[in-house]
C-alpha cells in the first residue's frame, strides 16, 4: 500500500489518517467524502519555506488556491505563512471571506473581467499578474479613474513546455497565457507598463507546466528570463524586485511517480538564479513560487462506498462507487491515474483486478482502470489516494448529484470544513416557469 503523510493501518485493521479511523469518518459523514491530512499540508508548506530560509533568499511561497479553495483551507495556508494565488473573483472572494491578508494575495488569469480587476483594487491585494495587452490597458484606465497605483507582475512565456518527464524548447510558445518572451511582446508590455503612471512593475512571472519531476525546465526558464532581464536592465535601467517561477512541482499519484522533495526544486531554482545574477552583476531578486498540487494533492483521500458490480466475462469486472466524475473529473479529463485500497481492510490480499466506475450516466466516468483489489462488496469502502488537488475544486453537479463534504483530520481529531451539498442546494438558483413563454 502507498503511504502518504500520517496514514497508517490501525489496530482494527482500518485505514487511519491523522489519527482518525476512516471507517468511522465514513459512518459519521457519509460517502463520498474528501479527507485531508492537515499535518501533511503543513509539512509540505514548511518544506518549501524552510528551503528558501536555509538559502537565505527573500521569497514567497504562494499557495495556488485553484488546487483546492475553501475558507478553512485558506485559513490553514495563512496559518502556515503562505501567500496566495487566486485566479478568479470567486477565489478572491473566498480568500477575503477567510480573512486572508490582502497584501499577500496575487491575482492571475488570462481574461480577468473589469469587475474582477475592480474587486482586486478595492480589496487592496498585493499585486496583479498582468497576462495580456487588453488587461494592461484596462488596468491602467481603472487605476487612472481611481487615482491609485498598483503593483503588477508581467506574465511571460519563455518558450519552454515542461512535461512530466521532459521539456520541449519552442521558439515561441503556443499558449493562451502571457506575453511571449522571444517575439518581443514581453518587451513591448514592459515598456508600456514602465511608462505608466499607475502601474509599478514589481516583477516577472512564468509558469512552465504541471506535474513536473525534474528541475531542468525551471532552470532553463530562469536562464531565458535572466538573459532578457540583463538586456532590459541595460536598455531601460529596469530590474525586477520579484521573479515568480510559478508552480507545477510533481506529486506521487501512483507508485510509478517519483517526485523530488520540495527543497530540491527550490535549491536548484535558487542556485541557477544566483548564478545568473552573479555572472551578469545584477542584484538578486526575491524568488516567488506558486505550488498548488504539491501542497495539497497527496494530503487528500476520497472515501467511497462500494455499490453495484458487473462482470463482462473474459473482459473485465466493473465495480461501481457512489461518486465519480462529479467529485474527481481528472481521470475522464486527463486520463489521470490513481491508486486505491479498501479502507476497512487495506491489508487484505488482492484477489482480482477490477475497474472502478463512477455513478454518472457517462461511459467515460471511470475512476481507475485495472486496480488489484480483494473481492469487494457493498460492506466495503474504497479509499482513493492523492485526490487533494483539483478534486473538490473541479467538482461539479453532473446528473444533479450533490458535491461531497470535506473533512480535515489532525492529531486524532476531525473537523467538517465543507458541508455536503443538499438537493435544496442543487435547485437554489432554479426559477419556476411562470407563463407559457409564447404569451
Ligand atoms: C500560473 C499557475 N501557477 C500555479 C499553478 C499551480 O500548479 P500546480 O498545482 O501544478 O503546482 C498553476 C496551475 O495550473 C498555474 O497555472
Automatic annotation (TrEMBL):
InterPro entries: Ala_racemase/Decarboxylase_C, DAP_deCOOHase_LysA, De-COase2_C, De-COase2_CS, De-COase2_N, De-COase2_pyr-phos_BS, Orn/DAP/Arg_de-COase, PLP-binding_barrel. Residues 33-388 form the Orn/DAP/Arg decarboxylase 2 C-terminal domain. Its cofactor is pyridoxal 5'-phosphate. The keyword Zinc does not apply. The active site is at 361 (proton donor). Substrate binds at residues 293, 330, 334, 362, 390. It catalyses: meso-2,6-diaminopimelate + H(+) = L-lysine + CO2. GO terms for biological process: lysine biosynthetic process via diaminopimelate. It is an enzyme of class 4 (lyase). The keyword Lyase applies. Its EC number is 4.1.1.20. Pyridoxal 5'-phosphate binds at residues 248, 290-293, 390. Keywords: Amino-acid biosynthesis, Decarboxylase, Lyase, Lysine biosynthesis, Pyridoxal phosphate. Pathway: Amino-acid biosynthesis; L-lysine biosynthesis via DAP pathway; L-lysine from DL-2,6-diaminopimelate: step 1/1. GO terms for molecular function: diaminopimelate decarboxylase activity; pyridoxal phosphate binding. The modification N6-(pyridoxal phosphate)lysine is found at residue 66. Residues 40-296 form the Orn/DAP/Arg decarboxylase 2 N-terminal domain. It holds the Pfam family Orn_Arg_deC_N. Signal peptide: none annotated. Belongs to the Orn/Lys/Arg decarboxylase class-II family. LysA subfamily. Homodimer. Specifically catalyzes the decarboxylation of meso-diaminopimelate (meso-DAP) to L-lysine. This is Diaminopimelate decarboxylase. It comes from Weizmannia acidilactici.
Amino acid at each position: 500500500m502507498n503511504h502518504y503523510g500520517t496514514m497508517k493501518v490501525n489496530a482494527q485493521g482500518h485505514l487511519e489518517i491523522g489519527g482518525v479511523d476512516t471507517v468511522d469518518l465514513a459512518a459519521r459523514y457519509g460517502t463520498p467524502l474528501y479527507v485531508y491530512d492537515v499535518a501533511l499540508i503543513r509539512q509540505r508548506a514548511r518544506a518549501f519555506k524552510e528551503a528558501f530560509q536555509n538559502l537565505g533568499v527573500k521569497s514567497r511561497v504562494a499557495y495556488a488556491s485553484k488546487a483546492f479553495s475553501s475558507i478553512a483551507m485558506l485559513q490553514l495556508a495563512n496559518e502556515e505563512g503562505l501567500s496566495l494565488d487566486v485566479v478568479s473573483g470567486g477565489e478572491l472572494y473566498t480568500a477575503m471571506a477567510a480573512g486572508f491578508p490582502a497584501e499577500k494575495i496575487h491575482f492571475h488569469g488570462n481574461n480577468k473581467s473589469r469587475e474582477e480587476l475592480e474587486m482586486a483594487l478595492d480589496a487592496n491585494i498585493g499585486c496583479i499578474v498582468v497576462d495580456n495587452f487588453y488587461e494592461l490597458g484596462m488596468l491602467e484606465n481603472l487605476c487612472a479613474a481611481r487615482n491609485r497605483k498598483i503593483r503588477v507582475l508581467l506574465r511571460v512565456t519563455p518558450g519552454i513546455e515542461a512535461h512530466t518527464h521532459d521539456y520541449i524548447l519552442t521558439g515561441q510558445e503556443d499558449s493562451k497565457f502571457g506575453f511571449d518572451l522571444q517575439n518581443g511582446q514581453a518587451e513591448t508590455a514592459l515598456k508600456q507598463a514602465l511608462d505608466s503612471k499607475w502601474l509599478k512593475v514589481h516583477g516577472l512571472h512564468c509558469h512552465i507546466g504541471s506535474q513536473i519531476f525534474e528541475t531542468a525546465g525551471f532552470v532553463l526558464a530562469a536562464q531565458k528570463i535572466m538573459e532578457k532581464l540583463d538586456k532590459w536592465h541595460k536598455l531601460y535601467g529596469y530590474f525586477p524586485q520579484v521573479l515568480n517561477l510559478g508552480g507545477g512541482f510533481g506529486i506521487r499519484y501512483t507508485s510509478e511517480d517519483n517526485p523530488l522533495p520540495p527543497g530540491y526544486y527550490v535549491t536548484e531554482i535558487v542556485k541557477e538564479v544566483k548564478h545568473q545574477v552573479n555572472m551578469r552583476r545584477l542584484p538578486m531578486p526575491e524568488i516567488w513560487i506558486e505550488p498548488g498540487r504539491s501542497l495539497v494533492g497527496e494530503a487528500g483521500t476520497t472515501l467511497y462506498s462500494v455499490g453495484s458490480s458487473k462482470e463482462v466475462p473474459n473482459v473485465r469486472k466493473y465495480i461501481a462507487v457512489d461518486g465519480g466524475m462529479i467529485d474527481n473529473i481528472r481521470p475522464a479529463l486527463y486520463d489521470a491515474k490513481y491508486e486505491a485500497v479498501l479502507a476497512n481492510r487495506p491489508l487484505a490480499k488482492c484477489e482480482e483486478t477490477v475497474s472502478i466506475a463512477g455513478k454518472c450516466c457517462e461511459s467515460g466516468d471511470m475512476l481507475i482502470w485495472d486496480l488489484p483489489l480483494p473481492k469487494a462488496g457493498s460492506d466495503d469502502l474504497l479509499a482513493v489516494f492523492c485526490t487533494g488537488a483539483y478534486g473538490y475544486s473541479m467538482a461539479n453537479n453532473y446528473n444533479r448529484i450533490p458535491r461531497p463534504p470535506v473533512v480535515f483530520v489532525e492529531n486524532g481529531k476531525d473537523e467538517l470544513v465543507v458541508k455536503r451539498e443538499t438537493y435544496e442546494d442543487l435547485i437554489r438558483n432554479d426559477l419556476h416557469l411562470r407563463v407559457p413563454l409564447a404569451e
